[in-house]
Design a protein that fits this description.
Layout: E1 5-10, E2 13-18, H1 21-34, E3 45-46, E4 49-54, E5 57-61, H2 63-72, H3 102-115, H4 123-129, H5 138-153, E6 157-161, E7 169-176, E8 187-194, E9 197-205, H6 213-237, E10 246-249, H7 253-260, H8 272-283, E11 287-288, H9 308-317, E12 320-322
Parallel strand pairs: 7-10, 10-11
Antiparallel strand pairs: 1-2, 3-4, 4-5, 5-6, 6-12, 7-8, 8-9
Length: 327
């Protein structure tokens, strides 16, 4: 029977994991003969990410990172906010905007980008504020401070990874058409799950202006398909090949119909490459696109500002909570 072992290295930090304790011990002994090493035991902290274990599973958070960030940015005594960004924020570049300290702004946004490695709840807000790095205004700085105020309300929020009885790969994809008031480009995003656990996500403004909501959803679907294919390939390399079809849930019926329609319509000729790519994966039975209602679309929080209650309901469904919060 084949054994699996993974060695993860970042500069002088190392993680060793696998399914055979004896093999792991042998590898550590060998590495110790070649390098000066110190065994810190079970993984608890790595690159600012804290690891906590329980009967429920493995919990990842950046609580210490947030707790250190607030006093360093002068936001320790700020009033907590219930959401990371306000509804109808209309953040954009304006000719009469009041400039703010660019170096401070870039430093804060950079730290928030790193924090979003485990804080998917701030992914959309960070995606928005990162669009103004070259010329930030006081309004943009206010949006950054709003994210910090939200972090104060729940510094220990993170992701729970539970053991389930399957390794099914699936995802949710969504897009907000022409949401940017400056250039009318759209924001798309996706969540992907392996074995019922959230593993990757992305919120990003698209590079081109979409002519319809179907087009922007379709381009977002293409990015989601790429991510699912990468996960399938990665699991295959780790010894867990996926033989079942992966679901990519979408709430736009027009985009789903385009993906299944073999006829090239005039209004989608400019999406021809994406269309052929998606159709190929559909024909190979690798991907399918089940329809999901908008209210059940988890990726909504990556593309737009949703109501507070819907926001927190999505976080629960995504397996995000705060084990450090008082009960």
């Amino acid at each position: 029977m084949e054994k699996l072992m993974a060695l993860i290295i970042y500069v002088d930090d190392m993680i060793i994991t696998g399914d055979d304790k004896k093999e792991i011990s042998r590898l550590k002994d060998y590495l110790a003969t070649e390098f000066k090493m110190k065994d810190l035991g079970g993984l608890k902290y790595f690159l600012g990410i804290e690891v906590a274990r329980s009967k429920q599973g493995i919990f990842l958070s950046q609580r210490k990172y947030v707790i250190n960030l607030l006093p360093e940015t002068g936001m320790l005594d700020c009033k907590p906010a219930d959401t990371p960004i306000v509804q109808n924020h209309n953040l954009a570049m304006h000719p009469d905007q009041v400039p703010t300290n660019r170096d401070r702004y870039q430093g804060l946004v950079g730290r928030l980008i790193y924090l979003s490695h485990t804080r998917l709840d701030i992914a959309y807000a960070v995606s928005v504020v990162s669009q103004f790095m070259h010329s930030p205004s006081e309004a943009h700085m206010g949006a950054v401070e709003r994210i910090l105020r939200y972090l104060k309300s729940s510094p220990g929020r993170g992701i729970m990874f539970s053991k389930n009885d399957h390794c099914q790969i699936e995802g949710y994809t969504d897009a907000d058409w022409a949401g940017n008031v400056t250039d009318r480009r759209s924001t798309s995003g996706y969540f992907t799950f392996v074995g019922g656990n959230l593993v990757t996500w992305r919120s990003k403004k698209q590079k081109v202006v979409a002519l319809s909501s179907a087009e922007v959803e379709y381009r977002g679907m293409a990015k989601g398909v790429c991510e699912l294919l990468w996960l399938r390939r990665l699991l295959g390399e780790l010894g867990y090949p996926s033989n079942s079809t992966s679901d990519l849930f979408c709430d736009n019926k027009a985009a789903i119909n385009i993906s299944h329609n073999p006829i090239q319509h005039d209004h989608i000729k400019h999406m021809e490459v994406d269309r052929h790519f998606i159709k190929e994966k559909l024909d190979e039975n690798i991907i399918q696109f089940p329809f999901v209602k908008s209210e059940d679309q988890l990726a909504n929080i990556l593309t737009k500002v949703v109501a507070s209650q819907a926001f927190y309901n999505s976080l629960v469904k995504l397996g995000m909570n705060d084990i450090y919060a008082p009960t």
